[in-house]
Every structure is written in C-alpha cells, then in structure tokens.
Design brief:
Elements (H helix, E strand, L loop, with lengths): L2 E5 L4 H12 L3 E8 L14 H15 L3 E5 L1 H17 L6 H20 L4 E3 L4 E7 L5 E7 L16 H5 L1 E2 L7 H10 L21 H6 L7 E5 L17 H8 L11 E6 L22 E7 L4 E6 L7 E8 L3 E3 L11 E7 L7 E8 L2 E11 L6 E6 L2 E7 L2
Parallel strand pairs: 1-2, 1-4, 2-3, 4-7, 8-11
Antiparallel strand pairs: 5-6, 6-18, 8-9, 10-11, 12-16, 13-18, 14-15, 14-17, 15-16, 17-18
Length: 396
Amino acid sequence: MKKVVIGLSGGVDSSVAAYLLKEQGYEVIGLFMKNWHDDSVTISNECPWLEDSNDAMIVADKLGIPFQTVDLSVEYKERIVDYMFNEYEKGRTPNPDVLCNREIKFDVFMKIALQLGADYVATGHYCRKGTIVNSDGSETYQLLSGKDPNKDQSYFLCQLSQEQLSKTLFPIGELLKPEVRKIAAANDLITADKKDSQGLCFIGKVRLPEFLQQKLKPKKGLIIEVPSTIPIYADKQVDFATKMEALAYHSQKPVYQINDGKVVGEHQGAHYFTKGQRKGLAVGGTKEPLFVIETDVDQNVIYTGQGKNHPGLYRNTLFVKDDELHWVRTDLALKEDETMEVLARIRYRQELQKATLYKVVGGLYVDFEKKQSAITEGQFVAWHLNDELIGSGVIS
C-alpha cells in the first residue's frame, strides 16, 4: 500500500483530498504546518492557526488517519518572511503564496514527508498532474489547470520542478468547488461549510503595513498625481531598428519626475504600496479614484493617476532575468533567439492572455498581444500551452 502525507490546513479542500486518498486505498497521514507565531500582525479572527489546527485534527480523527503538527516557522521566516521584507524594501511586490509552495510545502514539508516514508505528498490545490511516458521509458510530468475554472490554482504552483511534481498528488483537481463541499457534507466533515481562507499561505490574513513596519520603518513622502496626458516613456517617437530593441524599450519600468504632476497628499512609506493599488492612499476630492501607477522607493515618492484606465497603468511587455526564470517543462525551455506563442497571466484569477515569449541573452521577454494593467515587479508571470502551465518567472 502506497503511503501519502497530506498537508491538512483545516480547510474543506485538504479535508476532502484526504478523504478521497483514503477511498482510493492509500495509507494517509495528515500533517498540519505551523508557519507563524506573531499574532500581533495577524487579524486573528479571520484565520487563527489554532482553530485551523483543531479542525484539521478533528478531520483526521473522523477519517481515522494519524495526525501531527509540524512547526516550520523558522524555515518560513528565513525563506518567505525575510524574502518579503527584502523585496518590499527594493520597491518590488512579492507573491508569498507562490514562494510558500516552492520553498515550504513542496520542499521543507515534502522532505519531512519523505522521511516519514511517504511515496507521495498531497495537497488540496485545484490543479491536476499529467504524465507523459517518453520513448526511453522515462516520465515527464505536466502541471495542468484545475477542472474548476473559478478555482484553478496552477498559478500558485508555477515554480514547481519535475522532481517535486513526480512525488505530488492533487486529489481534488478534477472536481468543482461545490462538489468538494458536497463530499465534505456527505461525510460529516467539520470543514464542509468553512469559509475559504484569504490570507498568506498558512498564516491567515495579515495587516500588511503593520507586518512590514516590523522591519521597514514609516517614512513620510509625497503622493504625486500624474495627468493622463503625460507620456509613459520620456520619448514616444522612437524608431526601433529591431524587434528586440522595441521589446527592451517597452519592458522598462516607466520613470516619472515629481514635476510631472502635482502633490495631492502624503504617505508613510513608498515600500508599503504597490502598482494598481487604490486603497490606503487617503486622498479625496478627485473626479475618479486615484490608483498607484508607480513607486519610487529611492526618492520615497508615490505616483498616482485618476481612474483604472490611466495610461500609466498599462504596458505590453515585461522581462524575466535568467536567474529568475523557471521551466516546469524543462524539455520545452527556449534556447537563445527562439520564440513561442503562449497564453500567460501576471496574477492569480486573471484570464489567460495571448503572448509571445522571446528568449534573449540574459533572460526572456513576455510580449502580450493586449496591454496589461499593473505589471508589477516582483510578481510572477506564468505561461501555458492550452491548459498546461509550462513555465514562469519573476517580473523584473
């Protein structure tokens, strides 16, 4: 009998995943990951880890499977929290959920599971795994979208490797969310009607400014409103000799100056804000709401524009450096000067967009057919062929 260790989070998805594995004849062990101790920045009534841990334990008891809690808070601080602080300090916006999957669930946690004698690790993610048998008998693993288009979570797993996928199971990937809740209710699982958590991976909802203020001290700066008539780039009348020159130009972060607009308010630190953000600016009196179109952490200035259609929010092209480029399907990785037509997204739940990949010295351009709103440095771009996620990278 094959042994599977499942990450029981105390939610309905992992509960049903554990139930399905048991039904399929696996020997199942439930593990709850404790990743965080600091309740001072956690909105405790939203997702307290103690309640989740208890719910996970009750589910394990109901299913008759062994259960234990593993404390990964030291690794979580080193690999996720410290990285987050570092990224925000540089004016980038990290995605802790993608990192948590790559660094914690499918690395630290997976190693613990394998030490327990597990053949596989399972999670309650809405995605699927495909297997291609090659002519030499070896296997190539596919990361496929979940069947539920409203819940597909393949984006959060966009940094997984072939080795990690080889030891992973996604039991609910073929199901729709209502079906998952129905199975939980039919089997009297305590999590059947539990709300989905909206917070950081296995932490819960965090007050981000307070969280960041632990390391990044408040520092007053100006909020500038940039009119929509200001060109996004200093010189728009540029003739490019090659497509690569055009891509290099248009993938650059727009540069604004204080005299490009007017001072409309003050903020407590540019590193607390991210592109496309609307809340937290505390500036009124504008015809349309203000959105952050750029942050400058060196000068501690936030540039804003009125309305979600402000041209400063939009561009077609982004760049991923080689050291932040990842191929799930290593056999499909582009070589220098090669291109590929793909479907890509720059955030979770975004509809897939037509794009072309261009591999060049030092990295990869992702050139979207339509302009994208709030392309944000530090976030992940992921690309697909049909319903298969084949690669990803950190936006530079």
